[in-house]
Amino acid sequence: MDEYDDEFRRAWAPDHQMTGERLRWYQGAWPYEGGGYWFDGLARLGFALHDDALIAQAKQRLYAVADRMNARGLLFLWWLDRDNPEHRQAVTAALEGWPLWACGLLGRALAGFYAGSHDPHILQALEMAYGPDPDGLRWITGNLSNPWPAFDTYCWSGNPGVAAALDALFRREDTALLPSLKRYRRAPDLRPGTTVDNAHVVEFLESTTPWAVGYLWTGDRRYLEAAVGWHDLLERIAMQPHGVPTSDEFYGPTGAFRGTETCDVAAYVWSQVCLLQVTGDGRMADRLERAFFNAGPATVSRDFKTHVYFQSPNRIVNLSPDFPHGPRAAGGAYQPKHSPLCCTAALNRILPWYVTHMWMATTTTAWQPPPTAPVGCRRWWPNACPSCSPARRIIPSTTRSRSPCNRNAKQPSP
């Protein structure tokens, strides 16, 4: 990726320390997003393949952050001071905390690396990000990318500071989230004819899926109903034949010439993995499989050297007319990279997230394949089981047991 664009060389590099207005993605901070996407796929693919070169590359890039973490930083923005009002104001002013959303992407990459390596230095970095500030998750206004890696961190460490941050987010109603995002805390009205405000699909997926963590953490089934309900709404009004919603760059309505952004293919695969883990519902496995085997291959050339920004059911010829939404990226144009570079980076997540979740475990049984796993995987995948996170378990929707990772969870309601 470093060879495709210099922005990837800057991704979470020690000398790439944006401050003030440069914390906005279009003024210098984009490599934080790109690095999070890329490293997430890189680490998981390395461990899935048992590829020492990929693992070493991921370790080198992630250690650039882990080596510099401290208790006063703003999540993984280690060069900023959370007690400095100017620093906090600058982060919030950058598109309502966009850099903190990018931190959540890096958090998932670190969690993926720790799941495969059990490297204590990586876990220490995660604890340093999510443990020192009990309001570290609750005060974020514009995104919810951090609860999943924070939850994984607690599962591995039992860190009371991380528990306090999760409590503040999920057991209190006074979060700082914008109304456009806080609405996802409760299930939508699914009655026919009901309308809701539209949203950028990456924002939608990143802001609805994490409420399932609230169910794992508190046992409050309303959180699970919210996450599942919003995804049901998206499927009803925006799902394309290839298995991923219309997203050019906002969702709905569907159409033969509507586009789906490659970032959203990756995000949708991730979201259905997460919901499948929590619910054990076969619908999520069906969605995951349709997206991976249909929209997934269409994002990239067979040699994996060029990709599209958007794909469309009836635009399959290279250099088709562009789309009237978003950055007007050419529909179906396979190029080494597209501007902005988000899809070039996110493409790396699709295969690893699917493959590394082809086998999961329930809270009560041994490792088993979910509906997406071909029978042939039984021959080789068990060898990779130690690489999986303790949070990566299917929790059947009918279970009444406590969350496997949380000592404070209440009994889920029926």
Task: Give me the strand/helix succession.
Answer: HHHHHHHHHHHHEHHEHHEEE
Q: Give the low-confidence spans.
A: 373-404, 406-414
Mean pLDDT equals 87
First and last CA, distance = 48 Å
Our count of domains comes out at: 2
The total beta strand count reads 5
How much of the sequence lies in strands comes to under 5%
Count of helices? 16
How would you sum up the major sheet? 3 strands, mixed
The share of residues in helices is 40-55%
How are strands sequenced across the largest beta sheet?
Answer: 4-3-5
Radius of gyration: 20 Å
Please state the structural category.
Answer: mainly alpha
What is this structure, in a nutshell?
This protein is mainly alpha-helical and 414 residues long.
